[in-house]
Amino acid sequence: MDKKIKRIGVLTSGGDAPGMNAAVRSVAKSAIHFGMECVGIRRGWQGLINSDFVILNNDAVRHIIGRGGTILYTARSEEFMTEKGREKAVGTCKVLGLDGIIAIGGDGTFRGALELSRLGVPVMGIPATIDNDIGCSNYTIGFDTACNTAIDCIDKLRDTMQSHERCSVVEVMGRHAGFLALYVGIAVGATCVLIPEHEVNFEEDVVQRIQNARLSGITNFTVVVAEGAGSAIEYGKKIHEALGLDPRVTVLGHIQRGGAPTGRDRETATRMGYYAVRAFAEGRSGSVICTQNGSITEIPIEEALAMKKNLPMIRYEILEAISAPSMPK
């Protein structure tokens, strides 16, 4: 990248995640530090097509580090998936004098950034999704906050389940990955956790574990279900049929995306935002800012999109060992 970066744009795309505002703030303030101007693109890639923007100076990002959601809003854009839509987006970059774009989001966001880079616009990506399922990065902005939100909700549910000696079936987000469900399940001491990465054997994974828990003296049970492993409502019905229990089903849904970001998400987002802007300042682009083994690094977008992340199944083994151990033979 030979051209000196003088003005950059930043956008958030896809599902919102706590900590996105902290990342936007960091990008804006880091840009000022490196002698650049920063423009916030509202409503993701569609906003870039429509020239929907706001100037991000120090005043614009004051006090947003602890706010959930994203002040830039987020949206999905079918138009950007077309060649004509991307050409409009490039046109907006020219009209606004944007020398580069920092895109905050998940794999879909990065695919959009890659297409834009192929049209000559320098880009950098920052991973933000509560599912923590971005292959190139050990950690994604929003995961810690979502986990803590789910843990708090389940802790409250356990209070009433214990009082009434009932079974609670809780569905958490994770359509394609069980990182959130497994982390939360371990943290709340769930009776069992159902995740997409582990084929569910209902008799062994649910029925027997509840039976073992009851025989060990436990009178209330918590089943955590990642949405990608099936419907909590259906599992609740199956538990009733198999064991005669009257489960209470709770689908946490979008509550997991909201709330003030935790310290970890604020700090990680701030570091990632700084590194993305510094890359531009030092003449680099076309990468995703990632965490690898505790450090921040850059991985080319094409390589990043090809990477896969496997759930550490040792955590599942730990859960099985300590949550509802088998009865001695």
What do these coordinates show?
This protein is elongated. By secondary structure, the protein is an alpha/beta fold. It has two domains: 7-142 and 261-306, Rossmann fold; 144-257, Phosphofructokinase domain (Rossmann fold, 3-Layer(aba) Sandwich), CATH 3.40.50.460. It contains eleven helices and eleven strands. The strands form two sheets. Strands 3-2-1-4-5-10-11 form a seven-stranded mixed beta sheet, with helices on both faces. A four-stranded parallel beta sheet has the order 7-8-6-9, sandwiched between helices.
Residue stretches low in confidence (pLDDT < 50, at least 5 long) are none
Distance between the termini: 67 Å
Query: CATH topology of the largest domain, which one?
Result: Rossmann fold
Question: What percentage of the residues does DSSP assign to strands (E)?
Answer: 15-25%
Placed side by side, the strands forming the largest sheet appear as 3-2-1-4-5-10-11
The Cα radius of gyration reads: 22 Å
Number of helices: 11
Sheet with the most strands, sense and barrel status: 7 strands, mixed
- Which structural class should the secondary elements be placed in? alpha/beta
Total number of strands: 11
Helix content: 40-55%
Overall outline: elongated
Look at the structure and give the CATH class of the largest domain: Alpha Beta
| Domains (count) | 2
CATH architecture annotation name of the largest domain: 3-Layer(aba) Sandwich
